Structures are given as C-alpha cells and as structure tokens.
UniProtKB/TrEMBL annotation:
It comes from the Bacteria. This is Gfo/Idh/MocA family protein. Keywords: Oxidoreductase. InterPro entries: Gfo/Idh/MocA-like_OxRdtase_N (IPR000683), Gfo/Idh/MocA_oxidrdct_glycsds (IPR050463), GFO_IDH_MocA-like_dom (IPR055170), NAD(P)-bd_dom_sf (IPR036291). PANTHER family: BCDNA.GH03377. Gene3D superfamilies: Dihydrodipicolinate Reductase, domain 2, NAD(P)-binding Rossmann-like Domain. The keyword Oxidoreductase applies. It comes from Nonomuraea salmonea.
Length: 362
C-alpha cells in the first residue's frame, strides 16, 4: 500500500484518546504530531507514543510532513481550524459536527473544493460491523421494502460526567447536534438521504450543574434545546422518527429499529462500531441475530482515515457530514416554526464496507 498516511491532531481533549489508540494500531496511518491550546495536555497525549512531536497549532497546520489534519477541537472552532488547514493545502478529518453552523460548514467545503483537498468527518462508527451488517440485510431484501425507522437517544445530560460540559449547551451542542450525527448518519447509510423534516423541541432548564471534576457544583447556562423530536422523510419515502434528549432519565427503546414490509431489524448503538443486529421476519416467533457480514471489525474512532488512502470522497466524508448538519438545522427550524422544512442539500449514500480488519494492510 506504499507509505502510510501522515496525520497530525489538533485538540487533545477527552475524545483524542480514542483516536490515538486507533491510529496506533493502523499500519496505514502514522501520527506525526499533536497540538493543543494547553501545551501540557498535548504533551500528556503524545507521551505514550514514540516519535510523536508536540507542536503549537500554527506549526502543525503548516507542517509539510502532515497530509491530513485531524480536527478534534470544540465545535465552535471546527470551521476555523479546518479552513486554516485547507489554506495550508492539507486534507482535513473533523470531529462531528462538521461545523457549528451550516454556513460555516459550507465555507469549509467550498474552500476544500477550491484548494483541491478532501474533507472527512465523524462519525465513522457507521463503518463498523453493526451498521454495515444492518445495511447488508436491508440491501439483500431481508426486511422487504423499507417503510419506517425509529432512532432514540435518552440521557439526563453529559454534565453529570464531563468535567467541562459547557460546549454541550451552547450553539453547536445540545442532544441533536451532539448525538444526532451518529443516528442520522446511520439512517442515511441504511436508507439514503433526507428530503423533508418536521419537528418539535423544548428546553427544560436554564442552567445545568457540573457533576464531576474540579468544577463540580458549578452552574452553567443552557442556550440550546435539550429535547428534540421529529420525523425525517427520506428521498426514498421511508419515514424515520427521531428522539434526542438530554432531559430524560432512561429508555428501553432500541437505539435504532428499521421496519420493512416483510421484516424488522433492531440495529445496535450507532455510537459504537459493533453490536448485534436482530432480525424478525414476517411470521417468525422470535428475533434472530444475524451473523456479522460487513464493516470494519474491532474498529475505533479514526478508522475513517483509511479512505484517505484512495481517491474520491471518503465514506465518512464532508458531503455526508454537511447533509447531516443540514438535516439537523432543518429539524430545529421546523421545530421552531411549526412547519415542515425541505432539506436543501443531499448526498450520495456511501458505498458499503466489505468485512475486514482495519489493523491489517489487506
């Protein structure tokens, strides 16, 4: 496969540990350097990995050794860092969402197009064996023609465990923009792009209290909707019902279900790469677990970088991420207006992933 893809990470917060672990086991990818506004945090992130340098952000973004900048900053900084990397001629792989607003995301994609570089974006959990096995089941007609889906995420809120949860409760955050990308990306991977949305939303509390870490007990303001529900009308005609909440305690609903004329699937947590896919066919007395048939086995965050080794749009790519963000912003607009909203963008349904282990060069 030639020389490995060289990458640098900007942003060494909590999520960076998962990327670092994945990159360390991918022979196709080599980490050159990390950077963070807090140099001590960057040094701590790099310390376990031999040969990884600690640079300041400006140095990393222009380092000629680095082909892809992995942007793990907070959502409000996604566009700024991506645009600076693109201006330096780098490909960019960004944590979700692609940007805090659709306008910023559009600027990123336009700049990348003009510069001739590529944009990838999380979540790449859709490339794991869970969602990909479900996709194969749908593509092979095991549930007949798809009719509907449900996607449910209920949690009391991330301030209970995250030591610095402020960004979850400002524009670019909230349950929809934080967790929605996992669910909506999965629905699009399985059922195709979304044409129209309707929705409703609410905000139960004006403040949240940090539950752990050095700021425990501190109150932070809430400026976004913390419970969002809606219906996504896919271009195919499938209706997906979505519920994203930071206001509920628990739920027994499956993360995702997909229903067809001849069967139903229970799909695993889209925040993970694996998990059982359960099929109940018309006339069955009970569900059965499908064998793993597609996707990257034992994958982790950052596996989407493998697509940067070949030409073309990455599966976890900018076009998909922009459409997901557009769907979410359209859903919030529908919730606040009380009317259905057409989604202006679209995207190609990403190509399926054949079953393989990303830790090999095969």
């Amino acid at each position: 496969m030639g020389q490995p893809l060289t990458v640098g990470i900007v942003g060494c917060g909590a999520i960076s540990a998962q990327y670092l672990t994945t990159i360390a086991r991918l022979p196709q990818v080599r980490l050159v350097a990390v950077a963070d506004l807090d140099p001590e945090r960057a040094r701590a992130a790099a310390e376990p990995y031999e040969g990884v340098e600690v640079l300041d952000v400006a140095e990393l973004l222009t380092d000629p050794r680095i082909q892809v900048v992995i942007n793990l900053t907070v959502p409000a900084a996604h566009a700024e860092i991506a645009l600076r990397a693109i201006a330096a001629g780098k490909d960019v792989y960004c944590e979700k969402p692609l940007a805090a607003t659709g306008e910023d995301a559009k600027r990123v994609l336009e700049a990348a197009g003009q510069a001739g570089v590529r944009v990838g974006c999380a979540p790449d959990t859709v490339l794991g064996t869970g969602i990909q096995t479900a996709r194969v089941a749908i593509d092979e007609g095991l549930i007949g023609r798809p009719v509907a889906a449900t996607a449910t995420m209920m949690t009391p809120g991330h301030e209970r465990w995250h030591p610095n949860p402020d960004f979850y409760y400002v524009p670019g955050g909230g349950p929809l923009l934080d967790m929605g990308p996992y669910y909506i990306s999965s629905l699009i991977t399985m059922l195709g792009p979304v044409a129209t949305v309707i929705g409703a939303a609410s905000r139960t509390r004006a403040k949240r209290t940090i539950g752990s870490g050095p700021r425990q007990g501190e109150a932070i303001p809430v400026t976004v909707d913390t419970h969002v529900t809606g219906v996504l009308v896919h271009e195919s005609g499938v209706l997906s019902t979505l519920v994203m909440s930071f206001d509920a305690v628990a739920t027994r609903a499956p993360n995702i279900e997909v229903h067809g004329e001849r069967g139903s699937l229970v799909v695993p947590d889209p925040n993970r790469f694996d998990g059982p896919v359960l099929l109940t066919r018309l006339g069955d007395q009970a569900a059965r677990e499908l064998p793993v048939s597609a996707g990257y086995a034992e994958a982790g965050r950052g596996v989407g970088l493998i697509d940067f080794l070949s030409e073309g749009e990455p599966r976890a790519g900018g076009a998909m991420a922009f459409h997901v963000l557009d769907v979410m912003e359209s859903l919030l607009a529908a919730a606040h207006s009380g009317r259905s909203v057409d989604v202006e963008s679209t995207c190609e349904r990403p190509a399926a992933v054949a079953f393989r282990d990303p830790a090999t060069r095969e």
